[in-house]
Amino acid sequence: MKYNIQCPHCGNILTVEEEWAGQQGFCSHCHMQLTIPPPPSTGDVPPVYLENQSHGGEHQYLAIAGFVVSLFCCCFVGLILAIVADQRMRRSGDFQGHGWCVATYWIVGLQIVLGIIQVLCGSLFTL
């Protein structure tokens, strides 16, 4: 039977087999060595599972905020928000709202390209 554990080093959620309990293993995220704890007793809901469920759409809101900030205010602050949301989505395995991160990357890239064109055209007119 498979069950979830949390890496004590990075907090990543790992799915392990029951027969691995008590053995040494490595986290797939941080690659640190850990001892696999025994599975929870029947009827108990592991706290890791409850913690994992509580993140829901939290990352999606961060990704949307990154998109809005990059579109209307400061593209680099929005980029940082989108990168943080993207990393949290990858860590949790919940990719709800990942499209907002991709859209933010495109907006920031476009703003950089337009800025370069503006600088180049501006320097042509000053010659």
What is the compact description of this entry?
With 127 residues, this protein is α+β, with helices and mostly antiparallel strands. It has four helices and four strands; from the N terminus they run ββββαααα.
What keywords describe this structure?
alpha+beta, Rubrerythrin, domain 2, 2 domains, two-stranded antiparallel sheet, two-stranded antiparallel ribbon, 54% helix
SSE order and pairing:
Elements: E1 2-6, E2 13-17, E3 24-26, E4 33-35, H1 47-53, H2 58-72, H3 75-92, H4 98-126
Antiparallel strand pairs: 1-2, 3-4
What does this molecule look like?
By secondary structure, the chain is of the alpha+beta class. The protein folds into two domains: about 1-55, Rubrerythrin, domain 2 (Single Sheet); about 60-125. The protein is about 55% helix and about 15% strand. The chain contains four helices and four strands; from the N terminus they run E-E-E-E-H-H-H-H. The strands form two sheets. The protein has a two-stranded antiparallel sheet with strand order 1-2. A two-stranded antiparallel ribbon has the order 3-4. A hairpin with a 6-residue loop joins strand 1 and strand 2. Helix 3 runs antiparallel to helix 4. The relative contact order is 0.11. Residues about 50-55 have low confidence and may be disordered.
